[in-house]
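As a warm-up, study this chain.
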Amino acid sequence: MKEDAPQLLRAELSAPSWQPQPILLSGVTDPYQPAERRLRLTRRCLEVLAEFRNPVAITTKNRLVTRDLDLLAELAGYGAASVALSITTLDDRLHRVMEPRTSAPARRLDAIARLTERGVPTAVTIAPVIPGLTDHELPRIVAAAAEAGAVTAGYVLLRLPHGVAPLFECWLEGHLPDRKQKVLNRIREVRRGRLYDSRFEVRGSGEGPYARQLERLFHVASRKAGLAQQMPPLSTAAFRRPASTGQLEFPI
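Now compare it with the structure written out below.
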């Protein structure tokens, strides 16, 4: 964890070599983990991004994102902010054993509604979709997110790289032993007989008849809910380097 991330970000955006472009928070880990309440690293990074009006896209499983509505709404006013709430299941019982340190499904839907009310374009990412366990929920999640105000939706099929696969098998055995073989067999069905396929073009969606069935189910649900195919593009038009950085204070 880089506790000096806001300072490093400011230095990067202040550099004459920086070309305004969207920044993703985060492609590696959730920017609103429980520690964020204390450390406020994401909040402080957003303060820097708002000062420079540099566009940002956020992906999270936590309602804590609504704490920063003031900054996100400010950036959204320049077309420079979007948020994707990741939802795995609407089943509270399953959520508690699968994602115990994340916001409950209803609270994530509430976050979508609150962001939408403040003009922040918001999407739902259904991830991970677990074949044989949560895949049947695709239409319900899409419909609930659309009702809350989501602009668009996407999904990512469960990925089990390296040592994650045996951990997942142990989790199934401990929490859902009666479903274990069905889930593992369905995963192998969309992964060419294996639990993981690293090929970029299929690792997020799988392949084969069952994967195509899921894709059709998702697209039908999205059309029925009236969701757009994509989020509005983020804009760099309002980017500026504040006067305090030694640069002129006007959009580039």
